[in-house]
Amino acid sequence: MGHRMDSEKRLKIAIQKSGRLADMSLQLLEKCGIQLSKSRDQLLCRSQNFPLDVFLVRDDDIPAFLATDVCQLGVLGQNVLREKQAVGNGKFAGLVEELPLGYGRCRLSIAVPQGFAYDGLASLQGKTIATSYKGLLGAYLTANNISADIVTMEGAVEVAPRTHLADVICDLVSTGNTLISNGLVETDVILQSEAVLVKNQIADAEIAQLCDKLMSRIKAVQRAAQSRYIMLNSPTDSLAAIKAVLPGSQSPTVMPLQGRDDMVAVHAVCEEGVFWDTMEELKANGANSILVVPIEKMLD
Ligand code: ATP
Ligand code: ZN
């Protein structure tokens, strides 16, 4: 009897333990209905209601967890994955970006000190560039026929020009405030990045099935997040016009209204944003009692 549980295969996912991606990644799993024991300082959380083990690690370690099949899935920035792939001698070639997750957006950019005479990439010829992304930067420079010295720094890259460690930098930017407060100007974007769900080459059929199940839940969560349920009353004779205004809805449900033959009720799932503009346009077409509500879950 006892070995039924032991032989049950479990999917393993690595997410960031703490940092910019940590909260959103944990929330994503929770929105997929996965309950986790709350002890955050552990390396490993086992879900009680889904055969999933969650490894809480540094984002930089996730590609190695995947390459060695300690985990089959990971959530990390494209910047980290692609950098590891650029310097990894093929070690990370089997890792696949399965799904963009829409958070952790940033870009890897070159930035120069204010007053640096920048006139295109050629201005970087022979200069020294500080970065934590020597693989991505190196490939970008090579592709553009620029030869420059790359100085690798683990952190505080933005202070390199002031301390004369480098002429310019290549670093992650989101708002740009860090650059501004260090007297730097962004010149070239090397990579646009966001958090992605990364998968390794899963050999086991049972694990692959668990992976598909989790991925379809994530996709459903993403669809629900951007969808709205819209309800309104429409004049019967402007129904076609009303339907045309509803954003990204396939076939709305049309129902009679008790005691009225000039008006009908229309319910629709809209898979695109429903903005004030849309609502005003619906009203201009004769709709009234317009309600827009969020959708918690959806599954086709
Ligand atoms: P860890 O301790 O896990 O190694 P870290 O310090 O390397 O953490 P964070 O600063 O938490 O990493 O960033 C994690 C990821 O968040 C980055 O790799 C990147 O994909 C994304 N990100 C989004 N905006 C920014 C930003 N402004 N600066 C740095 N990373 C950002
Ligand atoms: Zn890191």
What integer value in Å does the Rg equal?
Answer: 25 Å
**First and last CA, distance:** 37 Å
Bound molecules: adenosine-5'-triphosphate, zinc ion
**Fraction in beta strands:** 25-35%
> What is the quaternary state of this protein?
single chain
Number of helices: 9
Indicate the low-confidence ranges by residue numbers. none
Average pLDDT score: 94
Largest sheet composition: 6 strands, mixed
SS elements, strand count: 15
Helix-residue proportion? 25-40%
Shape: flat
Question: Order of strands across the biggest sheet?
Answer: 2-3-1-4-11-5
Q: What is the string of SSEs from the N terminus onward?
A: HEHEEHEHEEEHEEHEEHEHEEHE
The computed structural class is alpha/beta
